[in-house]
Each structure stands twice: as structure tokens, then as C-alpha cells.
Amino acid sequence: MRIQDVIRRPLITEKSTSQRDVVNTVAFAVDTRANKIEIKRAVEAQFKVKVAEVRVARFRGKMRRQGRFMGRQPDWKKAYVRLAEGEKPIEFFEGV
User: Fold this and answer.
1) What's the CATH number for 3-83?
2) Contact 83, 24 (CB under 8 A)
């Protein structure tokens, strides 16, 4: 798996924003096949920071309904990445 394919998108929520400010932890939606080591390497390579810890959580896709038709959202994985002491926080909206 390529490093560019591991991280899907940053998760910008109220919880992840407060964790970024308080404990220097950033949340990402990642590929479901990626492990902690691959996630760590991808974050260090793409954002040029040092990673201290990676925690992952898997989520099952929910069943959704559109009228009489049933569908299912895909399974996905979330990664909480804690940056090392002294690292600057990752800013996603730098140019705005």
C-alpha cells in the first residue's frame, strides 16, 4: 500500500479540535487495511512531524434507506495520532 493512500481525510469535529489543542492529537479517516505502523509513517511523511502514538478504531457501516430501497454505508477506520512533545500542531486550514 502506498503512503499517499493510507490517509483518506482529516476528521474535523468538535472532539478532534479540542484534542488537537489540549493533548496535541489529530484524528484522520484512514484506509481500513492500514495498520498503526503504516499510519505513523504516512503522517510523518506527509506532514513532516514526529508521531508519538497511534490509536485506531474500526466502525461498521450503517444501513441506510431511501424510500423502499435499502443500502449500506461502507466500513471505515479512524486513527488518533498523538504528536511528539515539542511538535507544532497540524493545521488543515492554513491558507484560508
Assistant:
1) 3.30.70.330
2) yes
What SS3 class is residue 2? coil
| Contact by Cβ (8 Å): 11, 28 | yes
Q: Work out the end-to-end distance of the chain between its first and last CA atoms, rounded to an integer number of angstroms.
A: 32
Q: What is the pTM of this model?
A: 0.88
Residue 93, helix vs strand vs coil: coil
Residue 36 parent element (H or E): helix 36-47
What mean pLDDT value characterizes the chain? Answer: 93
Please list, in sequence order, all residues whose beta carbon lies within 8 angstroms of the beta carbon of residue 35, skipping any fewer than 6 positions away.
none
- Domain segments of the chain as ranges: 3-83
Instruction: For 44-77, write each residue's pLDDT tens digit.
Output: 999 999 999 999 999 999 999 999 999 999 999 9
More confident residue, 21 or 54: 54
Q: Which three cell numbers stand for residue 91?
A: 493545521
